[in-house]
Design brief:
Keywords: Aminotransferase, Cytoplasm, Glutamine amidotransferase, Repeat, Transferase
Radius of gyration: 20 Å
Strand order of the largest sheet: 4-3-5-6-7
Number of strands: 12
Domain SIS: 41-180, 213-354
GO molecular function, one term: carbohydrate derivative binding
Number of helices: 14
Order of helices and strands: HHEEHEHEHEHEHEHHHEHEEHEHEH
Subcellular location: Cytoplasm
EC number: 2.6.1.16
Bound molecules: fructose -6-phosphate
Distance between the termini: 31 Å
Length: 364
């Protein structure tokens, strides 16, 4: 069933344009985002005073993106918790807090327990789930399904991308309903959503360059992914992908936090991957990269076409197409998935079934 691909992971990476299109397009009607499955009236959406997002692993990284996107697009304050923390920390959620649980499998024990905790506290739970009819889908008040199809590889790729797509849809619907996005911007965003699959495809078509970089860095011992804002959230996912299938130690850091301790680990031979897609933070990120480079790190930059200033500082640069600032994660994550994949292949590891890991974590 790998359909000619060497591994499920690569097949699933290549399925992303279709998975993202399948998740978005049925929900755009006459140029508007329509999410009947939320079963929320305009009134319900206007009443939300806070959003609490909960998940594990990569789905948690989607929540981190969700915080930046929902707060900025819908102007609703968002808190994010790891499900394993949320369930035991006796959370205090104010009135009219909407809880969003994200899970590919819909069976993750901690995420299910977090959902139950939120319901016990009397809050509405919206689940973003891939597996139809799974426990989380059944117990949530409403479900927004991601249409990624079955994901076999332990390391998630296409589910992650469709979860992000679901967040964009929710942010647009909430922002428009609450009248904090004007009609012109709304139309521009909706149109751009439709172009994401083709832009993802363009990155996939350039996979040879990532493969070349992966071979170059396959013996790395320590890798730091740094970014600010949404780029920090992408860094978290890039780092997890790399460590889980290549067994290379890696960490994601908010770039501005490096100098509060971690920069002491930067020395010759360390690889720093600098993610810089957000225009307002670009200069700041570049100055962080100058700092690590002057301490001997090799720098791999990841930015948008047009930001050629990256080449002044980075040893190598990966470019992705331009899109709306809120949607860049969907593009920037693709080379990071490919990088992790090809490094794992270069190291001769079991890409689809990394050691010690299970696809669905149904125990604590
Ligand atoms: C990483 C990965 C895991 C899952 C996590 C949550 O590639 O796949 O971190 O994201 O175990 O799983 P779900 O989404 O099924 O709740």
């Amino acid at each position: 069933e790998k359909e000619g691909f060497e591994h499920f992971m690569l097949k699933e990476i290549y399925e992303q344009p279709k998975a993202v299109a399948d998740t978005i397009s049925p929900r755009i009607k006459d140029g508007n985002v329509v999410l009947d499955e939320l079963e929320m009236t305009e009134e319900d959406i206007k009443k939300i005073s806070r959003i609490q997002m909960v998940a594990c692993g990569s789905a948690y990284h989607v929540c981190m993106c969700g915080k930046y996107i929902l707060e900025q697009m819908a102007k609703i304050p968002v808190d994010v918790d790891l499900a394993s923390e949320f369930r035991y920390r006796q959370p205090i959620l104010g009135d009219n807090t909407l809880v969003i649980v994200i899970s590919q499998s819909g069976e993750t024990a901690d995420s299910l327990a977090a959902l139950r905790e939120a319901k016990k506290l009397g809050h509405k739970v919206l689940a973003i789930v891939n597996v139809v009819g799974s426990s989380i889908a059944r117990e949530a008040d409403s479900v927004l399904y991601t249409w990624a199809g079955p994901e076999i590889s332990v390391a998630t790729t296409k589910a992650y991308s469709t979860q992000l797509a679901a967040i964009y849809l929710i942010a647009l619907l909430f922002g428009r309903t609450r009248e904090v996005i004007n009609q012109e911007d709304y139309k521009k965003y909706v149109a751009e959503l439709g172009r994401l699959p083709e832009k993802i495809q363009r990155i996939l078509d350039e996979k040879e360059r990532i493969q070349w970089l992966a071979n170059k860095f396959s013996h790395a011992k320590d890798v730091f992914f740094i970014g600010r804002g949404l780029d920090y959230a992408i860094s978290m996912e890039g780092s997890l992908k790399l460590k889980e299938i290549s067994y290379i130690h890696s960490e994601a850091y908010a770039a501005g936090e490096l100098k509060h301790g971690t920069i002491s680990l930067i020395e010759n031979g360390v690889l720093v991957i600098g993610v810089a897609t957000q225009p307002e933070l670009f200069e700041k990120e570049i100055s962080n990269l100058v700092e690590v480079r002057s301490r001997g790190a090799s720098v791999l930059g990841l930015t948008l076409y047009g930001n050629y200033a990256m080449e002044d500082i980075a040893d190598f640069t990966i470019y992705v197409p331009k899109t709306e600032d809120y949607f860049t994660t969907s593009l920037a994550v693709i080379p990071l998935q490919l990088l992790a994949y090809y490094i794992s292949v270069a190291r001769g590891l079991d890409v689809d079934k990394p050691r010690n890991l299970a696809k669905s974590v149904t125990v604590e």
